[in-house]
Queue: 2 jobs
Job 1
Amino acid sequence: MPVTSLRMPSARPPEVAKIKIKIKIKIKIKIKINSQIKSQIKSCAGVEEVGQRHLCQR
């Protein structure tokens, strides 16, 4: 019986693993950006009352 593949039949192919890793990285980046935006909004809410609104505008 010839050996056609050294990979176990239950193991996923490397292409699928690469795609899943890329998706996980994109999700982590989105979560990080969203948390930064939320923290900026919270910090700007307090700054606007002081009168330094120009620092928070984009």
Job 2
Amino acid sequence: MRAVAAPLGVTVAVGFSFVLLARADVLKYVDEEKQSVEVEGRVVGSGRHLLLIQLDDGQIRLVPDVAVTQHEKGPGPEPIDCASMLERLQDEFGGETFRGYADPPFVIGLVLAAPLPSGSEPRVAASLKRAARFLRNVQSVFGRFAKSLRLPLTEPQFPMVLLIFETGDRFCDYTKRTTRGQGLSAAHMAGFYSITTNRLAIRLSECVTFDTPLHEAIHQQVYNRGIFQRVAPIPAWFNEGLATGFEGNGEKITTSPARINVRQARRALEGASFTWKDLLSNDDLFRDQQTAADAYAQAWGLHWLLATRYRRRYAKYVRLLSAKKPLQEDTPEQRLSDFEGAIGLTVEELQAEFRRALAAGLRRQRVRTQSRNEPGVLLVQSDLAKVRMIGVARDGIVQAQGQLRNLSTIRPMSFYVMAITDAGTYAEWYVSSLDVNRVAPLPAKPAAQRLPGALGGAASTFQIRVWSAIPGSETDRGWRRGQRPSLQPAKPESE
């Protein structure tokens, strides 16, 4: 690999070529705002009264066929290269608040909350290169998994983009714009892969363990290496169960769908309010915040069972799904028929077998299924902070103390922490300008202040809320003056 000249804040390594589009379609259509739009790309699917147009950067656009006013054939366009992708991303997010790096076929972009302070550029460069190494590892592990199933892989046709957002606000804004409010709310998402944009988007705080990036990067591999076609009717249980089967520790990926994921195994053993037949038929289980966690665990369990006990039948089912076309429609009955025809067993038979098989697998792998959580201790990772808090209830008042680590890899951050009890009382801490990866103590305090409207009374449990801000920002100055953050819905937390 060698570096080539690129815009400010952008580094590109070259030595990789992309497959060219064979032909082009030039369409004019009327959009939702009654404006005339012209788009050049390639029509790769049609159905449900829609045309699926693939653009030169890998994004796809769905256009109602009745809205098309003109459709012509052309000779291009060719897929853009990584340098061109970086230029487009810089234009999209702004030169002062975007840094990029390319290690083809991967393009990594960091979307900043504010211009960087002096001396931060080396940290940013190191963070981007670490993300690139991680994506390379994902590609290698996924390749070995596909080879074990004798599934052929193709080279990516377009640059594979990972966007890392420094703060929750910018991540949520981008998520709402991309998903248009479909699926889980942005505040409860740590990251996602978009079928339409072909991009991964994650929070910077997820680049500590890479758990969420790993899950989403598997989705990106599946749809860019010739396994499945985007917007084909691939069941959510298969998509999510496959990605959940991979688990990592930082940049290192430690397991695959054929090994036991301890976290998911614990949840799967607890059971769920739905059957595996429901899981195969109903994607909404993954979109409902009340059932999503159980759906992921049960989908992991079904994948694990197939990958360990029915590998050839599992591969046969993957090849069946691979033949699905974009915008094709499958009924719930068709899904079940496809699955049971390929596997040779009913889904009820598999679910009955699962608990016995998992129990045997746990013994072989010597896995502990009981959580080692300490009573009275909360571990929370949220908004660029990792907090360990100890709470002890005495005479109806929770005494709390702990420590906070700055998870930002690029700059100092200020933090506001609240321990909020079930009685509506709280303790609070303000940590000013904590340097990268440094730890600050949260001294012992009673959660004795009462939130507006809270009834008070004896407290026995507590939760942690964390906010971050760039030092010297308007938000940070407000905290210095004693302004408490607004208690909006919580960001994703991990305990």
